[in-house]
Amino acid sequence: MTEDTIICRCEDVTYGQIVRAIDQGFATMEEIKRMLRCGMGACQGRTCGQLIAQIISARTGKPLGQIAQPTFRPPAMPTELAILAGEPDEETS
After folding, report:
1. Which residue has the higher pLDDT, 39 or 71?
2. Of the four, 11, 19, 64, 90, which is 20 to 30 A from 4 by CA?
3. Which residues lie across from 6 on neighbouring strands?
4. Does the residue 21 lie in any domain?
C-alpha cells in the first residue's frame, strides 16, 4: 500500500492518515474511528473495518484477534423513513 491508498471509501481516509494516527498513539479501532471518522460512513465500517484492524496489528504488533471492533449505532442497515414513521405499506393497504 502507498500513503495515498484509500482505506475508508465512505470518508476518504488514506493508509497514510491511519498510520500517522497510530504513530501518534491512537492504536484502537475506536480511537481511529473518532479521530478520522473511519467506519462512520454509509457502510458503517463493513468495508474498511478489517483493513484498519490489520493495519493496527501490523503497526503495533498486537494480534489481530485482540483488536476490538468499534461500537455500531443503529440503524446499521438503510431503513426507509416511512417504516420508522409507522406509515402503512402501499402494497398491503
Report:
1. 39
2. 64
3. 14
4. yes
Average pLDDT value for residue range 55-62: 95
Owning domain of residue 35:
6-85
Distance, in Å, from the CA atom of 7 to the CA atom of 36, rounded to the nearest integer, reads: 11
Hey, CA dihedral for 22, 28, 34, 36, is it positive or negative?
A: positive
CA distances from 48 to 60, 64, 66, 77, 81 (A): 18, 15, 17, 16, 26
> Across the strands, what pairs with 8?
13
Question: How many domains is the chain built from?
Answer: 1
Is 32 contained in some domain?
Answer: yes
pLDDT digits (tens, 9 = 90+) for 5-51: 999 999 999 999 999 999 999 999 999 999 999 988 888 888 899 99
Instruction: Tell me, yes or no, whether 92 lies in a domain.
Output: no
User: How many C-alpha atoms does 12 have within 13 Å on its Cβ side?
Assistant: 0
Residue 60 lies in a domain: yes
Residue 69: the pLDDT is 83
